[in-house]
Structures are given as structure tokens and as C-alpha cells.
Amino acid sequence: MKKLFKIFLLLCLIGIAIVVWCSYIVEKSSRGKLFNNVNDIPCNDVGLLLGTNPIGRTGRPNIYYVHRIQAVVDLYKAGKIKVVLISGDNSHRSYNEPEYMKKDLVSKGIPADRIFLDYAGFRTFDSMIRAQKVFGQNSFTIISQEFHNQRALYICQHLGIDAIAFNAKNTISRYWRIRMYFREKLARTKAVLDILFGKKPHFLGEPVPITIPK
């Protein structure tokens, strides 16, 4: 039993070390590429908005969603982006993140013809690859919360995408911060493993051109 316990303990320590290492390299890859102030961030033609559910687990509006929408509006009105590519989950008819977000962006003054939709952004990994391979973008501004942006930038670095990111506000309770902290550690580990093992997106498909206004 002592031998089994030592083996178990060793495996746990190795697992923790891998998670810590993955989190570190993800965070390191985003240094100098994250921006909190609209006035400080460089201009890009395309803003890549990462999708999320408009309704949180409690049944109330998802604060992540609310802040991401506002971040896009702020960037667009400041002339920091010209068009928006929304990448989100539309895995079944009753759930369509890109359409939800488009509707709210249009209601806040962003022209519908400046918005492009990626319905197969099931994961952050898929969103980055599809932005490059399907929508033909090798330089863009990612828009999400900081923890999410760091992971997206890590993926972009390994895809050869010249990306920066704007951090939407992250005003959630301490409970949800702790919960998200541990969830994100695992998500970063998976992102690193996806890169190492050459993971492929769920779907690619035919190229979709994005028209950039002059």
C-alpha cells in the first residue's frame, strides 16, 4: 500500500507540474500583446470577438458576454477595428452565439455589413485556426477577458498569427473567480497539448472572404 501511495503521489506531483508549466508558457506568450485601454491599443482591420453564452449559469445575463459586447463597441467607435468577426458555438438550432452577439452589436450602432460570423468556433482553438484558414486573417485583435485572451494568443503564436488582444472587463464575484481560475488552468493545459499533438479543428470548409472597408 505504501508503494502504491508513493506512485499515486508522484503521479499527482507530475500532473501539477505539467499544469503549472503549461499555465506559465501560455501567460508568457501573451506578454506585451494585451491591452486594457482603448487609447493604447494599436489599430487592426479585424476584431475577433470570442463567443460565449449571453445567459449565465444562474439564469441572469452573463457578465462576460455583456463586457465583451461593450469592448467591441468601444474599439469600433474609437476606430481601432474596422470589422468584427464573431466566432462562437452554433452546434444546434436553439443555440447560436454568433447571431446573439451580432444582434446586440447592431443594436449598439455597429453596421450589420461590418460584422462577419463564424458558426463553428466551438473552442478557442477552432476559432483561431478558422480565422486564419477559413477567413484568411493573419493579423487581428482578439476580444475577450484577459485569462481567455492569454490562451488565444498562445495558440496564435504557434499558428504564426500576428495577434494582439483587448481585455474586456472581468467583474465577477470571488467565488466565480476561483472557479474560473482552476477551470482555466486545465484549459491552458489542453491548449498546450493540442498544439504539441497537432490537434485539428472540428470543421474547416471553403474560404469566406472578409471585405475590409477603406
Give an account of the 3D structure:
By secondary structure, the chain is of the alpha/beta class. It has one domain: Rossmann fold. Helix content is 47%, strand content 14%. The protein has 6 helices and 6 strands. A 6-stranded parallel β-sheet has the order 1-6-5-2-3-4, with helices on both faces. Strand 5, helix 5 and strand 6 form a beta-alpha-beta unit. Helix 4 (124-133) crosses helix 5 (146-159) and helix 5 (146-159) packs parallel to helix 6. The model has no long low-confidence stretch (mean pLDDT 92).
According to CATH, what is the class? Alpha Beta
- Radius of gyration equals 18 Å
At CATH level 2, the architecture is: 3-Layer(aba) Sandwich
Give the distance, in angstroms, between the N- and C-terminal Cα atoms: 71 Å
Biggest β-sheet strands, sense, barrel: 6 strands, parallel
Number of helices: 6
Fraction in helix: 40-55%
H and E string: HEEHEHEHEHEH
Unreliable runs, pLDDT <50, ≥5 residues?
none
Q: Strands of the largest sheet, in order across it?
A: 1-6-5-2-3-4
CATH topology: Rossmann fold
Mean pLDDT: 92
Shape: globular
